[in-house]
Amino acid sequence: MQARERLVAMASEAMEGLGRSRWRVESYPRPSLAGILYGATTGIVLGLTLFPNETLRPGAKARQIVLFDSENIARWIYTYHREIRSVITCVAFYTAIMPMRRRLQRHSYKSGWGHWFAWFTAALLGGPVACTSFDSEVKAVETQSAKKH
To answer: Which residues are listed as membrane-spanning (predicted)?
Structure first.
């Protein structure tokens, strides 16, 4: 039995040495409220900045509903709509590509798998909130595994 325990310990050390985790997240949790709010907010702002001539003109329904027909906010968004759109897009793609890719590779996910695609889409839409959601899911798997042993 000691040989098996040593072998498991060596395998764990080798995985950690390669930058891999021995924990594998097999499930995809429902999006958190913070992720939904982040995605909805960025989606609305992105919608306003993608079509500023239609959404920010006086009398437009989007301007009345979202901005409460505020002239100052509409003018500010119209002035900086390219910069706002660029920041939102860059944050979304950076979060989806860099941190989530590293997290998924660390837990031995391969591109194209169903869970990988679900996490990638969540990171694209949910931004940094998806990264914290993934980390909490890994911690849940670790504690669940620790309870079994």
So the answer is: 32-51
- Provide the pLDDT confidence category of residue 75 given band limits of 50, 70 and 90: very high
In the 8-state DSSP scheme, what is residue 31? P
Residue 112 pLDDT class (50, 70, 90 cuts)? low
For the segment 122-142, the average pLDDT, to the nearest whole number, is 81
What per-residue string of b and e applies to 81-119 under the rule 16 or more CB within 10 Å gives b?
A: beebbeebeeebeebbeebbbebbeebebeeeeeebeeb
d(CA 81, CA 61) in angstroms, rounded, equals 18
pLDDT value at 135 more than 70: yes
Distances in Å between the Cα of 8 and the Cα atoms of 2, 12, 56, 59, 86 are 10, 6, 61, 68, 48
Q: Alpha-carbon distance 111 to 60, whole Å?
A: 43
